[in-house]
Write a structure and sequence with these properties.
5-stranded mixed beta sheet, 14% strand
């Protein structure tokens, strides 16, 4: 017997049985965090400090300041943010406006669900310039805000470009690296 398949059936067969992917989700509400990431975290023996670069950080300055950090290259904003959520990287630094709200918001929810944040770098830098310290700072006051443009009746993509930001999952890693950047004024274009 010869089995005949229609083009639709063949495409469905190829789609269903050849593509494999993963679904990551997470959300934070009040003081509760929910996600499906606990089994996805870095399973290597060496989960040492890592940082992802983006923007125009002077790589020589960066290397001189942070010899104990690994520098990784990962393509695309979403992949870098997912690397933070999966704890494959500790810090994702963006030194210029290079992403839009829609590039960050889904990954931001997942990062929040593991206790991390995405913070606005210019606002954090202004605070540091005034106080010269990040000790005991509540980083939630610097978190990226997505709905501050709701009053605009005419959609303009440029209005939804994110300012420079830094994403992290561990506060102590952020404070360790951030003071190096702020003191040496290498953060923001």
């Amino acid at each position: 017997m010869i089995l005949k398949k229609t083009t639709f059936e063949l495409r469905f067969y190829i789609y269903v049985f050849s593509w494999q992917g993963r679904i990551y989700w997470g959300t934070a509400y009040s003081n509760e965090n929910f996600n499906n990431l606990s089994e996805m975290y870095c399973k290597e023996n060496d989960c040492s400090r890592r940082v992802l670069l983006h923007g125009s950080v002077d790589v020589k300055t960066f290397t001189n300041l942070l010899n104990d950090w690994h520098k990784l290259e990962v393509s695309a904003c979403g992949n870098k943010l997912l690397s933070i959520a999966l704890k494959q990287a500790n810090i994702y630094l963006v030194t210029k406006s290079a992403a839009y709200n829609w590039d960050l918001c889904a990954a931001h929810a997942i990062i929040r669900s593991i206790g991390g944040r995405i913070v606005d770098l210019p606002r954090l830098k202004a605070f540091f310039d005034q106080h010269r310290s990040l000790a005991n700072i509540d980083l939630s006051q610097f978190e990226i805000i997505y709905n501050d443009k709701l009053g605009n009746l005419h959609f303009q993509p440029k209005d939804y470009a994110c300012s420079p930001f830094i994403a992290y999952f561990n506060r102590s890693d952020l404070v360790d690296i951030l003071e190096y950047f702020l003191i040496n004024n290498i953060l923001i274009e």
